[in-house]
Amino acid sequence: MNAKLADKIATTVIYVIAGMVALVLFSMLGFILVQGLPHLSWHFLTSPALSFEAGGGIGIQLFNSFYLLVLAMVISFPIALGAAIYLNEYAKKSVWTNIIRTAIEILSSLPSVVVGLFGFLLFVVQFKFGFSILSGAIALSIFNLPLLTRSIETSLAQIPYLQREAGAALGLSRWETVLHVVLPAAVPSIVTGVVLSAGRVFGEAAALIFTAGQSAPALNFMDWNPFNISSPLSPMRPAETLAVHIWKINSEGIMPDLNLVSAGASAVLIIVVLIFNFSARKLGMKLFKKLTSS
Amino acid sequence: MDSITEKIKRQSESTRKDRFGRTLSWTALTFIVLVVALIFAFVLSRGLNTFIANKVSVTDFLFGTTWNPSVVNPKTHQPFVGALPMIMGSFLVTFLSAIVATPFAIGTALFMTEIAKKRGAKIMQPIVELLVGIPSVVYGFIGLTVIVPFMRGVVGGSGFGILSGTIVLFVMILPTVTSMTVDTLKSVPRHYRESALAIGATRWQMIYKVILRAATPGILTAVVFGMARAFGEALAVQMVIGNAALMPTGLTTPASTLTSVLTMGIGNTVMGSLQNNVLWTLAMILLLMSLVFNLIIRMIGSKGELK
Questions:
Q1: Which CATH architecture has domain A40-291?
Q2: Choosing among A266, A268, A274, A279, which should be mutated to test the B contact, i.e. which has the most B CBs within 10 A?
Q3: Which end of chain B is more exposed for a tag (fewer CB within 10 A), N or C?
């Protein structure tokens, strides 16, 4: 075949493929937003869910999702930060380091349902935490740790070695250099990584159905004492999140308006992920401008 | 004199701080490794119970075609715990979705990096990135409300099945595979392109003979990564596959995967019973498969480096 003809055919094929993919992706986003957005209202976002009648909201689920996200981040960030600092600043190239890196890689590729089952076995059953925010937050942290560690490590690795040498030349120890020189320089890209991983944690469901549970008992939003079981802050109450809610009502199929509720909840999930994605970049760039002289 | 020796020998403030920081960060790292070890220990010890405590033979489990753990087979006096239907289901949806997704991902990535760079960066890149982050339950919900009724209308039956699962997984892993392929294509050095064009290659010849060849290991990694994601995906698949633990006879009859049986069953069985143990064995298979995918990615990586 003529090379020029082949080139034309191939280009057309690539155009068609890209067009089809764009169409599929666009129509998917469009479908969720068109179906879900009209259903969003203050009532929908704040009122509790109803199982057997139409008109329920997603208020408690939405709160649970954010609460679990915050807890999971509070648990996983310091650990991931420490691990990333050790891997990037202290670890020497050795068999041992290689094994550790492999372990983290394996953890990041584990199906989230396996992480959830592990959490169920250890925290819900063994430690008798029951289906609770605490079990769920720990499971989410385990799910989040490898990805966050990797992203922070990449951020640290991007800081030029010159900066560390400068720190050493000033007589700072390695730890002081990390704390006062490397970390501040890496803050913008670390923040971007954290916010992006928050989006992923927010929509995770498989790790939660057997740890945080599939029920959302009524909460008393006037009671902020974490030791009361009906308080929104109580870590020992079962907490169905938004993503789990979508899965549960669809697999049960009892709720009369489940399509509307799922579409609305899906739209909320997508919008939150969208906000996270968008603000991650904006926040990173803003911090970068503020912290550097550029 | 003494005070000087003492001063020199004494640990400096900086060293002390450094020791402290080093230990602190080392502890964090060790904690993660410990978690990985714990996950393996727990899942393996539970999963192996089927074979050790309940004395189910490994071949019966892996190649048996009937799954009904609460019923005892009168011939062998062992419960029906053939996991082949789920193993088949998992592999079928994984391979089918990867086979469908690969050409689309490569085509889209080529479009974004070689053909229409501006539009690619402006329109496709943000969409693909956003879709990578979309929760899998949303894909499951779309599958349930769009794909399942569509399949019901086109091929009849319930609409649930391996084909519906494949389509959902295809849409789900497509952004992931595409964005990883884009990264690979971007990392092909510019002078490869320039030299190919300089000796008179058309754009397609350059893409086909040079760029795709150079990017093969990376593209393979992307595909295997997508497969690993598809294999471990639980809820999106569970919502559309129909959850019938039967040997798949066609692509449009209800079937099940390892993950779908796990999510349905683990809450309904008593800890320590055979019915529960076999579910942990399924989880163990998932764990081992994710190891295998990891190994394949590593092998591709080291082969790519040698070149």
A1: Orthogonal Bundle (1.10)
A2: A266
A3: N
